[in-house]
């Protein structure tokens, strides 16, 4: 009897210990997040002023200046990425949701998953030898293509998954009215899934907006305003990198300010996306 | 039924067009592989297999060997796994088995936010927060307590293998923990109920019923994390010290495959130099693709196992 009680105590104790370890692990994982947020906000806030958003960077030694060109550059690059990445991704996702039960569909799904694990820097090399070497210059176009390639698998899989959530009865109702299948898919299924897909696309935009490695040798960097898409293009992430590894105090301040703007934008996108998804799920 | 569906010309065109775009995903993956192969042709022909075992990286003499970078990549990634796997498993178990249902969603979201922070911001934080902390506090402490091991000897610089491993661990934790959580969720409830019915404590339920079933999926999650760590570029470039030396000390600076590409690709002047960098990229591509294929197969298996099946 005594032995049984001892075992019981030991089992209870193990249970307690392991459970606290699990909680501890979760807390430890969140410490860097809190620390990153604290540092970015406390060091970045001082560098935020009107000049930061509108001015060009000043040469070393002159104080002041901003990152207006990098802000516009990031918007431009992300816009190009969306242009090249979202439509093919959505169409590929429609294929997977509608006709993807085949072996070919499985292969596409698998390729998309594998592709999302490919290091972004290798995509940079790919676009470099494909676009930069051919056009003989770094350009916003090349940067946009590199980001689009990173977006494609994410958009494809999100579209597929959200289309599959739409109840089949909606399609059946449309088909019963004599609507051709393709119109039922586009007008009924896609339209119903559209808000969800938009959220997914927003998340993939947020993901590529912070990418640095594939831009280093595609869009490169630029200290001035760029014109068109065939010019070298500045971006926030690349500027954070070059300024962070520089030895100048003033540039560090700018790097923190740029990090604050970038991080806050991405966090707001993420939180909004999460909130939209939750209200939609609850409404259902 | 069959001819009724395909008879509509619009339907047929719709199917063909979307199939074309779906195929583009596969085409792109193959294309990246081929293009990188072409870019590294010169180096492949020039150095052959010796490329991965040679230790000198000398642009002046135009002689390139990738061993220091392979070493740095592998060791920093393994270090990252050693730190991240126990923590990620703890998170996954906590979030799927232990946490109050009301806490699960917000906590899970916070962990996923770790993945929303861009790599370059982790690098910035690493330079100004993590590296000084390691230099002033952690490395002296490790040297004092475990200094008899060659792992913890040498100068305290902050920047080096330890900093690289820690930053990678932070960045792969959301990947490993969220995939593990999905895997644990796929474990049939009947297994848990069986263990509870036998009087198991909550940890015993996890140990006896959940973990054995989820084992292969958890290994898959770890390999996915490894794939991310190997290919991660910016944060580790900013923290690992970028010196192509092979040292056993974790305090010593090192260099990774992705970092050398990021640092030298735009400055590479000679054809052979550029080609050697592209070959490093090719190696990285093939290793990460192989790991990903392997990991996805493992993760998929858990979802497909027969009810109550063992591995």
Descriptive keywords:
heterodimer, A: 284 residues, MetI-like fold, 78% helix, 0% strand, B: 311 residues, mainly alpha, two-stranded antiparallel ribbon, 12 helices
Commentary on this structure:
The complex is a heterodimer of chains A (284) and B (311). Chain A folds into two domains: 45 residues; 234 residues, Orthogonal Bundle (MetI-like fold). In chain A, 78% of the residues lie in helices and 0% in strands. Chain A is built from eleven helices and no strands. Chain A is flat and about 70 Å long. Chain B is mainly alpha-helical. Chain B has two domains: 37 residues; 237 residues, MetI-like fold (Orthogonal Bundle). In chain B, 50% of the residues are buried. The C terminus of chain B is likely disordered. Chains A and B meet through helix 1, helix 3, helix 4, helix 5 and helix 6 of A and helix 2, helix 4, helix 5, helix 6 and helix 7 of B.
Condensed summary:
Chain A is an all-alpha fold and 284 residues long.
CATH superfamily of the largest domain in chain B: MetI-like
Which parts of chain A are unreliable, with pLDDT below 50 for 5 consecutive residues or more? none
* Major pleated sheet of chain A: none
The total strand number of chain A stands at 0
Looking at this structure, what is the CATH superfamily of the largest domain in chain A?
Answer: MetI-like
SSE order of chain A, one letter for each helix or strand: HHHHHHHHHHH
**Percentage of residues in helical conformation of chain B:** over 70%
Backbone shape of chain B: globular
DSSP summary, beta strand count of chain B:
2
Helix and strand succession of chain B? HHHEEHHHHHHHHH
How many structurally independent domains of chain A? 2
In oligomeric terms, what are we looking at? heterodimer
Quick check: average pLDDT of chain B?
A: 91
Under CATH, the topology of the largest domain in chain B is which? Answer: MetI-like fold
Total domains of chain B: 2
The rounded Rg of chain B comes to: 24 Å
Structural classification of chain B: mainly alpha
CATH topology of the largest domain in chain A: MetI-like fold
CATH class of the largest domain in chain A: Mainly Alpha
CATH architecture of the largest domain in chain B: Orthogonal Bundle
Instruction: Assign the CATH class of the largest domain in chain B.
Output: Mainly Alpha
